[in-house]
Amino acid sequence: MALPQLASAKFELTLPSSGESVEYRPFLVKEEKILLTAQSTGETSDVLRAVEQIIDNCTFNKLQVKSLPMFDLEYVFIKLRSKSIGSQVEINVTAPDDGVTQVPVNINLDDIKCVKEVGHSNNIKLTDGIGIIFDYPRIDSVNFTSKDGGEEAFNIMKSCVRQIYDTENVHEKNDMEDQELTEFLENMTHDQFELVQEFFNTMPKVKLPVKVKNPKTGVEGEVVLEGMNSFF
């Protein structure tokens, strides 16, 4: 005789990048095992692959997880964590007045928002006639084993290029030679490169402002937590 089947509650969330409504369930013991196994290695890449698999399982394999911007992936996982284990989390935050003292703070994961900066655009105009359209970084955009931060940042930028256009043509990423794209990006001026960096600096992020009171000095300040790692 077959054992009874345990039913899971279903919820909905909205993807920050697209506004698409996504159905999901809390993660179960089998998903917790996946995450704990990945965490035991101490490797960021293993943890993110586990997060990817858990999201895929808990959204009924209906999301193209590898195609999600990183901020979507982080947002979805935080929502899963809230419904699965609980929304209240205690974390240590560095007091902003001395930059050293660790202060335990209780946060509510349901208060976390994915924030898009005012004026943010993925259309970067390098000159009056030439520009780049960017996609957002995805999980496959990042090489977590790289030791060269500068080279890795360049590779992420290159992987996120969708189109390069001028007054006459639009060049799709798939039609570009790898070396040709590398040379184009390397020939940007410092000011043009800063325009590109602004795209990455202002792209949507999961954020939560929290009040922190330093027990040693009595000074209260605010810290803005950003990114999934800040909340666990």
Order of helices and strands: EEHHHEEEEEHEEHHEE
The total tally of domains equals 3
Structural class: alpha+beta
Radius of gyration over C-alpha positions, nearest whole angstrom: 21 Å
Mean pLDDT over all positions: 92
The main sheet orders its strands as 6-7-8-9
Low-confidence stretches: none
Question: What does the secondary structure layout of this molecule look like, with pairings?
Answer:
Blueprint (H helix, E strand, L loop, with lengths): L10 E4 L6 E4 L4 H13 L2 H15 L11 H16 L2 E7 L7 E7 L4 E3 L7 E3 L5 E4 L14 H11 L1 E5 L4 E3 L5 H9 L3 H13 L2 E9 L6 E7 L6
Antiparallel strand pairs: 1-2, 3-4, 5-10, 6-7, 7-8, 8-9, 10-11
Helix pairs in contact: 1-2, 2-3
Plain-language structure description:
- The chain is of the alpha+beta class and 232 residues long.
- It has three domains: 8-86, no CATH class; 89-110 and 206-232; 123-202, no CATH class.
- The chain is built from six helices and eleven strands.
- The protein has helices spanning 29-41, 44-58, 70-85, 149-159, 178-186, 190-202, and strands spanning 11-14, 21-24, 88-94, 102-108, 113-115, 123-125, 131-134, 161-165, 170-172, 205-213, 220-226.
- The strands form four sheets. Strands 6-7-8-9 form a four-stranded antiparallel sheet. The chain has a three-stranded antiparallel sheet with strand order 5-10-11. A two-stranded antiparallel sheet has the order 1-2.
- The N and C termini lie far apart (41 Å).
- The mean pLDDT is 92.
